[in-house]
Design a protein that fits this description.
The protein is an alpha/beta fold. It is built from 20 helices and ten strands.
Length: 582
């Protein structure tokens, strides 16, 4: 519990001063909350004394006491407002910062990170985990520290009036604190399980939503929804377990405080009845007995939630612990855009994909990479873009090692068009301008026309302001591909990587996409992964990849004259596509 409170305070960083000022305001809030009770007790004592003929009651005190009570009530809520003004924005500032930091981290880590961490785990940490910190983090710390500060304010009055009676409050708070520790320990034990179950539920929901087209097409839902049912059942069971574990300790915590209030009430009455304290002090102690533990009672919720917050902070630390792939990178200015692999080896975990690969792609030339599925073609492109770090050797772009670039700095020189195009759930305008947010309307339309997508965009209900579905699902594959090419054209990077850009395109759209690619690649350094002969036969060089090695290289005419992997590939493609080499 104390460890979590310390972590939250450390998490506040530059906002610590505001946090501590908020604690100070909580302290004053406690003082002013106690004052109306003290005034009320004093007034009642004055009335009783007049009834007993001990002293005359000054009627002016009524109006004065009412004004004082209104003043203290006003000051109480003023300091509560000031506390909130200083403390409440802190968590929103910090969570916003951390969400952006996680977003930046995800952009700068190796793609291997996403093989270790599920999308649902990341989503759960960014949403549920940080949402818990945002809504509860600072509030729970203030409930805990502020609650005990408020108690100390009232305890001070009790101790001044009668130190012996104050021992009852100490005993009650000590007893309640023991049960708070039980609550905290129980919560800390179950919070990781609860967090894991929540992550499983998020993953199951994502998987089910993604698989719905398959579920519907096969008319089956048993296997698809079973993991969802299991995750929901486990979520219910762990949260019920936490709840039933919390209730007994919470009841005992409250019992100790209520018993302390009753003990203070009866002991005050006894001391007053036996004339050991004045009637004013007796009434004051009796009134305070109902108020002294009010700020400590809700701390049981804080003790419980602090365990959940601890796990949320662990998740956040785990996300932020991954090293940036461009750690130590710098801004590198390039004068040319050739690419060179020097004895590069790379593998995913223990599986070797590229084995001592070396080649050169001269500036402003077109290079095609061919090979069987799993041979390492896409891996080569991913390494050029620094999606992964090489295990051995080096890759140079423009004579500079890619390890020396920042991710953004390197990618400012590269445009990539993938086989599986992803478009954002946004307007077509914003999707195309994603490659160059500063582009003008004229630049946007010029790029769209070059990509052969201007006409179909204008035919849409809202033209360029038409909002497309998630992933571009409301457009055809060819339309999505052309928009992605327009995005790359607008970026106007000197290096273009085309990863099977026409592999899944229907013949009707292929001519438009080939024309768009021609516009995109003019005067650029081009790397193309393709299976279609029409796409690769005019390349300046062809690299043939087989089992992680470059086994052949040359032009199309050179390679078809030699017995080897490429010639076999061409013969297979000729049969598949139904055409012959002249």
């Amino acid at each position: 519990m104390f460890k979590t409170i310390k972590r939250i305070i450390e998490w506040c960083g530059e906002f610590k001063v505001k946090l501590f000022i908020g604690f100070l305001f909580s302290f004053f809030f406690g003082w002013f909350a106690a004052m109306p009770v003290i005034i009320a007790a004093h007034t009642v004592a004055m009335v009783i004394k007049e009834q007993r003929g001990e002293e005359r009651f000054d009627t002016k005190w009524i109006g004065f006491s009412i004004l004082l009570m209104f003043l203290f009530i006003f000051l109480r809520f003023l300091f509560d407002y000031l506390r909130a003004k200083f403390q409440e924005p802190i968590s929103y500032e910090l969570v916003s910062r951390d969400r952006l930091a996680v977003g930046d981290l995800l952009k700068r880590v190796s793609l291997g990170y996403f093989q270790k961490v599920n999308t649902g785990d990341i989503l759960n940490s960014i949403t549920t985990g940080l949402h818990t910190l945002e809504n509860m983090g600072i509030r729970m710390v203030d409930n805990f520290i502020g609650g005990y500060l408020n108690f100390l304010c009232i305890f001070f009055w009790i101790a001044v009036i009668n130190p012996r009676v104050s021992l009852i409050t100490i005993a009650a708070v000590a007893g309640s604190f023991l049960f708070l520790l039980v609550i905290s320990k129980y919560s800390a034990q179950n919070a990781p399980v609860s967090a894991r179950v929540d992550r499983d539920l998020t993953n199951a929901a994502i998987e089910y939503a993604r698989g719905l087209p398959i579920v519907k097409s096969f008319g089956q839902d048993g296997a698809a929804i079973e993991s969802m049912r299991k995750a929901c059942r486990e979520s219910k069971e762990i949260h019920l377990k936490i709840e039933w574990g919390f209730v007994p300790a919470n009841c005992l915590h409250l019992f100790m405080l209520k018993a302390g209030s009753m003990g203070l009430l009866f002991s005050s009455f006894y001391l007053g009845w036996t004339n050991q304290i004045s009637i004013s002090n007796m009434l004051l102690l009796m009134f305070l007995s109902f108020h002294v533990f009010a700020s400590i009672e809700p701390i049981s919720d804080s003790a419980h939630i602090l365990g959940v917050i601890e796990e949320a902070m662990n998740q956040l630390d785990f996300l932020k612990s991954e090293e940036f792939i461009d750690e130590g990178g710098r801004a590198v200015g390039l004068t040319h855009y050739g690419i060179e692999f020097k004895d590069v080896s790379f593998g995913y975990d223990s599986r070797l994909i590229l084995n001592h690969v070396s080649f050169i792609i001269p500036e402003k030339t077109a290079t095609a990479i061919v090979g069987s599925s799993g041979s390492g073609k896409t891996t080569i492109c991913n390494l050029i873009a620094k999606f992964y770090d090489v295990n051995g050797g080096s890759i140079e772009v423009g004579g500079e090692n890619v390890k020396d670039f920042t991710c953004d700095g390197l990618m400012s020189n590269i445009s990539m068009v993938f086989q599986n195009v992803y478009l954002f759930h946004d307007t077509i305008r914003n999707n195309i301008c994603f490659g160059n947010p500063e582009a003008t309307e004229k630049d946007l339309i010029h790029a769209a026309k070059k990509a052969c997508c201007h006409d179909f965009i204008k035919a849409l209900p809202n033209g360029y302001d038409t909002v497309i579905g998630e992933g571009g699902g409301t457009l055809s594959g060819g339309e999505r591909q052309r928009i992605s090419i327009a995005r790359a054209i607008l970026k106007d990077a000197p290096i273009i990587i085309l990863d099977e850009a026409t592999a899944s395109v229907d013949p009707e759209n292929e001519q438009y996409i080939q024309a768009a690619i021609t516009e995109l690649t003019k005067g650029k350094t081009i790397i193309t992964i393709a299976h279609r002969l029409a796409t690769i036969e005019n390349a300046d060089q062809i690299l043939v990849v087989d089992q992680g090695k470059i086994v052949e290289s040359g032009t199309h005419k050179e390679l078809v004259k030699k017995e080897g992997v490429y010639k076999n590939f061409v013969e297979i493609r000729e049969k598949a596509e139904g055409w012959n080499i002249a």
